[in-house]
Amino acid sequence: KEEKAKIDPSRETSVFISPDSRDIHSVATAMETATAIRRKGIKAEVDFVERSLKSRMKYAGKKNFTHVIIFNTEAEKIAEETGEPESTIRTVPPVYSVYLKDMKTGEQIETTSKQVMVYITKTP
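RESULT FIELD:
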C-alpha cells in the first residue's frame, strides 16, 4: 500500500534535494528531479556538499525548506547499518532509496523518484 505525503497548502513549497554527491547517477537523478520541480514553479535546491545527513537536514531547516528529498545509495545505507566504510561497499548497478521528508511535521516516507514528483507538485 502506497503511503501518502501530506502537503500543507498554507506554506509555499520549497524543496531541498540531497543526492549522494560522490555518485554521478544520484547527482544526475537529483538534477532531473530539481528541473522538473522548478518547471512547476516550485523552488528547488540541490546540495552538492559532502556532509553528514544530520548536517544536511540542519541546513534545510535553517533555510526553511518545506520538504527534503534524499537520494540514498544502498552503499550509504549498508554503511550506516553496519559501520563498515562505505568505500568498501559497492552495488552494481547502484541502487537508491528515495526519501521525502516534510520539515514541518517531521513525516518521512520512502518512495520513488517518479512518485516524489506527484507528492511535491500535487495541488490541494
